[in-house]
Specification:
This protein is mainly alpha-helical. Helix content is 58%, strand content 6%. Helix 2 packs across helix 9 and helix 5 (85-97) packs across helix 9. InterPro entries: DSBA-like_thioredoxin_dom, GST_Kappa/NadH, HCCAis_GSTk, Thioredoxin-like_sf. One of its GO terms (biological process) is glutathione metabolic process. One of its GO terms (cellular component) is mitochondrion.
Length: 208
């Protein structure tokens, strides 16, 4: 769902009158923080019937949104057993120092994990993602060294807490600031509603 939302918002950023800003947040932190309030906020794939439905639904959405996703039942175990914290900290370090790479880097991480099924928790794969996103080896190494710094850890924690403050309980979460008020939208299937709230027309998943 995250990448569907990311891709479509990127397609619309020059069609709708929006200032699109990426705010890296850690899903694990959001889930953990909201569990007490939602009486067990678990990912849908952990519930057998919902996981079965989600598998079919992602394939349908991939076709509808024209996004290359390859997923099977085995991928759910891969998802839960792979740590994305290092990748999120790398993205956060990029946001803090070289934000112009943020969109490309986020897309490339997603492609590696979901389409190419690579383990993005490994440092060599993180560096490969950075290289593909256009970062120099020197910059990539510097960002990799930053992920263990208190500054980067605190920044990711702060943006995660900010998402929770706006009411996020999972991802993708989009906050639209319109007419002086924040509006939270959860899920990639709320883009048409988002457009309606901000007074913009929904032109489908691939607007011309």
């Amino acid at each position: 769902h995250n990448f569907f939302m990311l891709q479509v918002l990127c397609r619309y950023q020059h069609i709708w009158n929006i200032d699109l800003r990426f705010r890296p947040a850690f899903l694990g932190g959001v889930m953990q923080a909201t569990e007490l309030f939602l009486k067990g906020n678990k990912p849908p794939a952990m519930l057998p019937k919902r996981g079965e439905y989600m598998l079919k639904d992602i394939k349908r959405m991939a076709k509808y949104y024209q996004v290359p996703v390859k997923i099977s039942e085995d991928d759910f175990q891969r998802i839960f057993s792979t740590s994305t914290l290092g990748a999120m900290r790398f993205i956060t370090a990029t946001d803090m120092t070289q934000p112009r790479y943020l969109e490309t880097l986020s897309r490339e991480f997603w492609m590696r994990f979901w389409s190419q099924r690579e383990d993005i928790s490994q440092q060599e794969n993180i560096l490969a993602v950075a290289r593909q996103a256009g970062l120099s080896p020197e910059l990539s190494q510097k960002l990799l060294e930053m992920i263990s710094s208190p500054e980067v850890k605190n920044r990711l924690k702060e943006t995660t807490e900010e998402a929770i403050k706006y009411g996020a309980f999972g991802m993708p979460a989009v906050v639209a600031h319109f007419n002086g008020e924040p509006h939270l939208f959860f899920g990639s299937d709320r883009l048409e509603l988002l457009g309606n709230v901000i007074g913009e027309k929904w032109l489908g998943p691939v607007p011309s």
